[in-house]
UniProtKB/TrEMBL annotation:
Keyword Chaperone included in the entry's annotation: no
Superkingdom field: Bacteria
Species this chain originates from: Paenibacillus aurantius
UniProt-recorded name of the protein: FAD-dependent oxidoreductase
A Pfam family recorded for this sequence: Amino_oxidase
UniProt GO BP: negative regulation of DNA-templated transcription
DNA-binding region: 32-51
Length: 631
């Protein structure tokens, strides 16, 4: 782009400023091009050299607002204390900028409503405002509501000669946020589409991350139409997000491990997903052992500072990390971590650190950590140690991703999403797969199971396909205790993450990394305890869970004093599923295709890259690509 000389830029700015002031004083309709030329002392040729029409000058009013939005959108998350306050600041700044210019804004709004070509070839400030808000807000409907409330306020203000715009915006924002915090989820509105003829009809059973991902990829093909069936009233599965008292709570942690090497990054490029993230501050990640705090050895700096290992042990551990990165570590040759530990010549502290790392990243107890296959651990940490962004939170929670996937599916008009529609039977007849739900029967050419393997086996029990799924029937899930507390104020922030090595649990100050999840001034803490699953009786299991609850609350008491008095929201799940199949030696991940079974399978219990959400994404992408290649 050719740069404008400073003298030329000053002349152009003079014309803009003079014209806008004339519009403010007299009204846009009452100012002619000749008036502008006369007031600036320029010629008509000079005017039309810079501008094609008077409307070009009016667009500059929108451009000033665009600059305010741009600067706001580029505010680094580290400087934002509250999502609500951050959003309010934008609207109040916009209102303050245009408040003195009622006549100009009245003309601008009127012309923009009358002439839909006003922003042709340029950025529409209204659309830019909406898109910028979506980066920070987990639900696009909220962005739309806030923009609508702001624009409606501006329209009313334009018609009232004495009203103060800033006060009107402040009052209306207060009402909107009050409604967002307290109003229940609106009923689902269903739209029927006239479907075009397609070559293939696909059913996706399960609306979690895997099901949404598979359907989103398939929806890009004009030759495929389909239905996504979800038995619950919401999408997302364990990535479901809900709000209470201004806090956004995730059923599944929305941390992403190794984001720059994560399948989500690849998906984002392929599907056009847009999301922001923030990395957990490694300097504020601590381990507690024998009641003593020390930095977690997550990188070289923290490894030097940590008290978990002696100097020689640190040298040994650096060597092990290097070997993992180079993929020459002997761990990959052992059946399990337990086998490696038994044969390793490393000191006990190094062995314990390996065990604790596997507990933390696989969300499992020490006894299960020792059962994780060596090749699985080796590949996982090879990927993680090479990452420049080891632990990140998706700003705004999983809803930022799931809403975009849902939108991509629905906007094609070729796909239907059926919520609260559980599949009760699957059978094959007349070269079609027939799915029966409570209210209807549907025929499909292909069926994708994007649900826990335990549910798949239950649904296919008694069919000809059941025997081929027998190897996966006894797979056990990964379950943890989750203890979420939303606090009305920040009671303490000594670090962002504290891992109790003695009791195998941790507390994450989620709002320290993802500020979008709390109302102004609030704090969201999430405690997670890794659970054993072998008990002789139900009474023993209950006593164990009660003991874990006491240990978790003791950890809160120790590092977040006063938390009990500041609780605004509390949620305790004593057995929450993290993954449908625990990746240990006695379990076998379900392949995306099973021999002699005509279906496709995806989810965090299936074979794929990585662990947890990444395996859901990667297996779903694999399944979609297989179908697209065969269509």
């Amino acid at each position: 782009m050719k740069l404008m000389r400073s003298a030329t830029r000053r002349k152009r700015e003079l014309v803009i400023e003079t014209a806008l002031q004339l519009f403010i004083d007299k009204g846009y309709e009452n100012v002619s091009v000749d008036d502008i030329i006369q007031s600036t002392g320029t010629s008509k040729g000079t005017f039309y050299h810079y501008f094609s029409s008077k409307e070009d000058l009016l667009r500059e009013a929108g451009g000033r607002q665009l600059e305010t939005v741009r600067q706001w959108a580029e505010t680094p998350p580290s400087r934002v204390q509250s999502l609500e306050g951050h959003v309010n600041r934008l609207f109040l700044d916009l209102a303050s900028a245009i408040g003195p210019n009622r006549k100009l804004i009245r003309s601008f709004v009127t012309l923009s409503l009358q002439d839909n070509t006003l922003f042709t070839g340029r950025k529409d400030p209204f659309r830019t405002l909406y898109e910028s808000l979506q980066v920070w807000l987990p639900d696009p409907r909220k962005a739309e509501l806030l923009v609508t409330a702001y624009l409606g306020t501006v329209l009313i203000w334009c018609a009232q000669e004495e009203a103060d715009l800033v006060s009107m915006v402040r009052n209306n924002l207060s009402l909107v946020w009050s409604g967002l915090r307290s109003h229940p989820e609106p009923p689902l509105l269903e739209t029927s589409y006239t479907k075009e003829e397609t070559k293939m009809k696909v059913a996706v059973i399960g609306g979690g991350l895997a099901g949404l991902t598979a359907a989103a990829y398939l929806s890009e093909s004009a030759d495929i139409e389909g239905v996504l069936l979800e038995r619950s009233p919401h999408l997302g599965g364990r990535a479901f997000t809900y709000e209470k008292n201004g806090f956004t709570l995730n059923y599944g942690a929305h941390a992403i491990y190794g984001l720059d090497r994560h399948k989500l990054t690849e998906m984002g490029n392929e599907l056009g997903l847009s999301f922001s993230s923030k990395q957990v501050d490694k300097r504020k990640v601590m381990y507690s052992k024998n009641g003593q705090l020390t930095p977690a050895p997550l990188d070289f700096v923290n490894l030097i500072r940590t008290d978990l290992l002696s100097t020689m042990q640190k040298v040994r551990f650096v060597g092990e990390i290097t070997a993992i990165i180079a993929q020459i570590h002997q761990l990959k040759n052992y059946e399990t971590l337990g086998d490696y530990i038994a044969h390793s010549q490393a000191d006990e502290d190094v062995k314990e650190l390996w065990e604790h790392l596997v507990c933390s990243n696989f969300f499992i107890s020490p006894e299960d950590a020792r059962k994780v296959p060596g090749p699985v651990i080796s590949e996982y940490y090879h990927n993680l140690f090479l990452s420049q962004r080891p632990v990140n939170y998706v700003l705004g929670s999983w809803a930022v991703i799931t809403n975009q996937l849902r939108g991509k599916i629905e906007t094609t008009g070729r796909w239907e999403i059926g919520l609260q529609e559980a599949v009760e039977e699957v059978r094959y007849a007349d070269r079609k797969f027939i799915l029966r739900t409570k209210h209807r029967e549907l025929e499909f050419d292909k069926v994708i199971f994007a649900m826990p393997v335990q549910q798949v086996i239950k649904l296919l029990r008694g069919t000809a396909w059941e025997p081929f799924l027998a190897p996966y029937e006894n797979n056990t899930p990964t379950e943890v205790m989750v203890y979420d507390v939303g606090l009305k104020e920040v009671v303490a922030r000594p670090f962002n993450y504290i891992s109790d090595m003695d009791n195998k649990m941790f507390i994450s100050d989620v709002s320290a990394t993802d500020h979008t999840l709390v109302p102004e001034g609030g704090q969201l803490l999430q405690g997670i305890a890794y659970l054993s699953d072998t008990f002789d009786s139900e009474e023993e299991r209950k006593a164990y869970l009660d003991r874990k609850t006491e240990q978790m609350e003791g950890l809160f008491d120790r590092y977040y004093p006063g938390w009990r008095d500041a609780i605004s929201v509390k949620r305790v799940s004593k057995k929450a599923m993290v993954a449908s199949v625990k990746n240990i030696s006695r379990n076998e991940l379900l392949p995306t295709r099973v021999e002699n079974v005509p279906f496709y399978f995806c989810g965090d219990g299936c074979t794929g890259k990585g662990e947890l959400a990444e395996r859901a994404f990667s297996s779903a992408r694999t399944v979609a690509k297989l179908i697209l290649d065969k269509k």
